[in-house]
Write a structure and sequence with these properties.
With 294 residues, the protein is α/β, with parallel strands linked by helices. It contains eight helices and nine strands.
């Protein structure tokens, strides 16, 4: 047997084997008469309900990391084959993914697909804010925080090979940065101007995303994007109206940073750190900014 495989051939071979194994035990697809919101429904394609939403999405979806204004024809072809869920993020290609999707959406029709994006700046921005506080501390205090971060990673066995697959070089440094941020935030997080440095950054992210996509709503908005630790997720709850933390571990009065509404209803849902919603409409309360959405 010839085992002289290049990386692409190896990935194709292992992916095919994994896919065949998964398909043999996967859950049944939704029946054609299932209640829910259907878009781009095509015969011969399997769909299922997305989490606790009413969206009936194709079992295979379209990722957007490599979509570009000059590389989007595969998105249109995927749509023509029955895919109806497009995933993107402002971090993909420095926003060029969303520019590419905008071209695809013009061809397939915005109302015919479910469109998802992510709060990409959350993690890097949070780390930057907390790192500035860290740099202002004495070496002794910095050492204590580094030790706490290392102890946390060791206790969780987060750096073990069977936990961290290390499929790209920046994965471990990103995890270590998040662990340090968690230690800093636990003691000094109250020093961050959250409305300015967290909330407004996310609002700007959403507006930029909608502008690049040339649409006025998202169906799914995930926050945070690329979380490395539990704290990355729990601290982002401020963006969904859940309490933050003051010095000493006390929680201030709950304040909603975004008002999330669906067309004709005030119902919305959350799942595993992601906001899963119908026709996302984001309105920053008391900001004077116009609502984003139709």
């Amino acid at each position: 047997m010839d085992l002289d495989l290049d990386r692409r051939e190896f990935l194709q071979w292992t992916t095919s084997a994994a896919l065949l194994s998964a398909l043999s035990v996967k859950a049944d697809a939704a029946s054609d008469d299932s209640n829910g919101e259907w878009r781009n429904k095509r015969p011969g394609v399997s769909y299922r309900r997305l989490g606790r939403t009413n969206f009936m999405v194709s079992e295979i979806i379209c990722g957007g990391n490599h979509v570009r204004p000059d590389n989007y024809r595969h998105v249109v072809e995927a749509f023509e084959l029955g895919l109806n869920y497009f995933d993107t993020a402002i971090a993909y290609g420095g926003g060029r993914s969303q520019l590419g999707y905008a071209k695809a959406l013009k061809e397939v029709g915005r109302e015919n697909v479910f469109l998802a994006s992510k709060a990409s700046p959350w993690l890097s921005n949070r780390n930057q804010q907390l790192r500035a506080i860290f740099e202002s501390l004495s070496e002794a205090d910095q050492g204590k925080l580094r030790a706490q971060a290392a102890e946390s990673l060791a206790a969780r066995k987060a750096l073990d090979d069977d936990y961290l697959c290390r499929y790209f070089d920046a994965q471990q440094p990103a995890l270590e940065a998040s662990a340090l941020s968690a230690a800093i935030n636990a003691k000094y997080g109250h020093k961050v101007d959250r409305p300015k440095n967290y909330k407004q950054v996310m609002i700007d992210n959403v507006h930029e995303t909608l502008t690049k996509l040339e649409t006025d709503y998202l169906d799914v908005f995930m926050c945070p994007h690329a979380a490395n630790t539990r704290e990355d997720v729990t601290d982002s709850r401020d963006l969904r109206g859940v309490r933050g933390t003051e010095e000493g571990g006390q929680s201030p009065p709950s304040r909603r940073l975004f008002s999330l509404r669906s067309r004709g209803s005030d119902r919305w849902s959350r799942r595993d750190g992601s906001v899963l919603r119908r026709h996302v409409r984001l309105q920053h309360r008391q900001s004077g900014l116009p609502a984003v959405g139709a």
